[in-house]
Design goal:
By secondary structure, the protein is α/β, with parallel strands linked by helices. It has 2 domains: 116 residues, Rossmann fold (3-Layer(aba) Sandwich); 153 residues, Glutamyl-tRNA Synthetase, domain 3. It is built from 10 helices and 10 strands. The protein has a 4-stranded mixed sheet, sandwiched between helices. A 3-stranded parallel sheet has the order 1-2-3, with helices on one face. A 3-stranded antiparallel sheet has the order 4-5-8. α7 packs across α8. The longest helix is centred in the first third of the chain and has 16 residues. 36% of the residues are buried.
Length: 293
């Protein structure tokens, strides 16, 4: 380890924390404490319509109850919009992003006629409805106030990343959580995401852009999160290279907490929120046992 270890837990305040969140938070906290590193809490509240301040307060309360401590002040992504705009402008000026005015219905209708396959999240790959639209037409539509997201031109992005890496492969380091093992080099394949949304219509960023900008700014060295975000790492590594941002030393995508039907826990899952479990008499030690730590 060449630099001080820095981990983070970055929940979205649109519901109460559940056992899956506890696993991520405790794992990251324990890893930092074990190596004399730093543990950071970040509130990922770029979705202002779904953010609730009561959930922010509950997150802090639940984490303190678990016995976790973090550096202050807590970063909120809603204060970082200028940084995301600057990163997006960098990519746009280099021709790596383009505006997309297509609605969800228009995209669904297009792929119904000509199927494009699906991205790692199971959504239809974007069929390129707005790709190649003349700049003059784009400016007219944007001046008229027509909402647009910004999509990554994946083909151009991959060529730019290859040039930046001097032809070396795009990779990341994945750890399996075993203290006796070393991280393995994993080839990144962001092309599976197609022309992904990098800036949403309703906010100046997407999850993917905000997380790489903030991880770099906060000096995160070890990203600890669930396996449901493993595929996101492929796209985020591409953005890190395109924006010339430092690469985290290691990613650890831990197992997911599942409900009795084998589905990943969600914030709407009954009986698995930390607040419900605490009300039923669970202790922090019980939570560690329930998540397998």
């Amino acid at each position: 380890m060449n630099t001080p270890l820095v981990t983070r837990f970055a929940p979205s305040p649109n519901g109460d924390l559940h056992l899956g969140h506890a696993l991520s938070a405790i794992t990251g906290f324990d890893l930092a404490r074990r190596h004399g590193g730093r543990f950071i809490l970040r509130i990922e509240d770029i979705d202002m319509q779904r953010t609730r301040e009561v959930h922010v307060a509950n997150i802090l309360e639940d984490l303190r109850w678990l016995g976790l401590a973090w550096e202050e002040p807590v970063l909120r992504q809603s204060t970082r919009f200028d940084a995301y705009r600057a990163a997006a402008a960098n990519l746009r000026e280099r021709g790596l992003l383009y505006p997309c005015f297509a609605t969800r219905t228009e995209i669904e209708n297009a792929v119904a006629i000509s199927p494009t396959g699906v991205d790692p999240d199971g959504a239809p790959l974007y069929p390129g409805l707005c790709k190649g639209v003349p700049e003059e037409q784009i400016e007219q539509r944007m001046a008229a106030g027509e909402p647009a997201c910004l999509r990554l031109d994946m083909d151009r992005a991959l060529r730019a990343a290859s040039a930046h890496l001097c032809g070396a492969p795009l990779t990341f380091h994945e750890w399996n959580g075993d203290a006796a093992s070393s991280p393995q080099v994993v080839p990144a394949d962001p092309a599976r995401w197609g022309d992904a949304i990098i800036v949403r219509k309703d906010t100046p960023s997407s999850y993917h852009l905000a997380v790489v900008v903030d991880d770099a700014m906060q000096g995160i060295t070890h990203v600890v999160r669930g396996k449901d975000l493993y595929e996101a790492t492929h796209l985020q590594r591409l953005l890190q290279v395109l924006l010339d941002l430092p690469e985290p030393e290691t990613y650890y995508h831990h197992h997911l907490m599942l409900d009795p039907a084998g589905r990943k826990l969600s914030k709407s899952s009954r009986g698995t929120s930390l607040r419900d479990l605490r009300a039923d008499g669970a202790s922090p030690s019980d939570i560690r046992r329930l998540v397998g730590l």
